[in-house]
Amino acid sequence: MASLIGTFSASPAQAGCRDDIAGARHIGAGEFCVLGFCLYRAELWAPKPPVTSITPTSSDIPFALSLTYERGLSGARIVSTGIDEIQRLATQPIPETTLSAWRDAMRRAFGDVSRGDELCGVYLPGRGARFYLNGSLSAEIDDPAFAQAFFGIWLDPRTRALSLRKQLLGGT
Questions:
Q1: pLDDT in tens, the chain (172 residues)
Q2: pTM for this predicted structure
Q3: In this structure, how many other beta carbons lie within 10 angstroms of the beta carbon of residue 171?
Q4: DSSP 3-state assignment of 135?
């Protein structure tokens, strides 16, 4: 997700979301920049790289994806861009009732962000996702389809941020 989209530091947000993943280790990191303006730095934490032949979110490996913002963004923009990317990556149309539920869940999870704020999402295979804003739990979404679609924004092979995906998965 262009709008949603740190090297390790012991900030509470990173520690909190990583604590959800047993044996989490740093897999990769990179920046998401558009026209020379970096929007955020992303880091991926997991017990091992979450790669399968399809997408990382089709695996049974939990992971945490942490985004530390370089610029302020409204929560409404984060949600709107996220839904747009989820729809773009979908292999078939997503029913409007599902999109509406996902939009509401994302509004609970994401507020406005400022420079230095950190959003962290935890992928829980077969369960859904958990989100933290600056170290505080902001939402838990018990919907595996949502979790796969949401984290696909960064990790699906068709992401708009291919270089960032490669870096997150441990490439250079």
A1: 333 333 333 343 345 788 889 999 999 999 999 888 999 999 999 998 876 544 555 568 899 999 999 999 999 999 999 999 999 999 999 999 999 999 999 999 999 999 999 999 999 999 999 999 999 999 999 999 999 999 999 999 999 999 999 999 987 6
A2: 0.85
A3: 11
A4: coil
pLDDT the model gives residue 2: 37
Looking at 3.40.640.10, 3.20.20.10, 1.10.10.10, 3.50.70.10, the CATH number of the domain 34-169 comes to 3.50.70.10
Strand order in the sheet with 25-34: 25-34, 37-46, 63-69, 118-124, 128-133, 136-141
Q: Which long-range contacts (CB under 8 A, 24 or more apart) does 24-28 make?
A: 24/63, 24/64, 27/63, 27/168, 27/169, 27/170, 28/167, 28/168, 28/169, 28/170, 28/171
- Domain locations along the chain: 34-169
135: closest CA among 62, 68, 44? 68
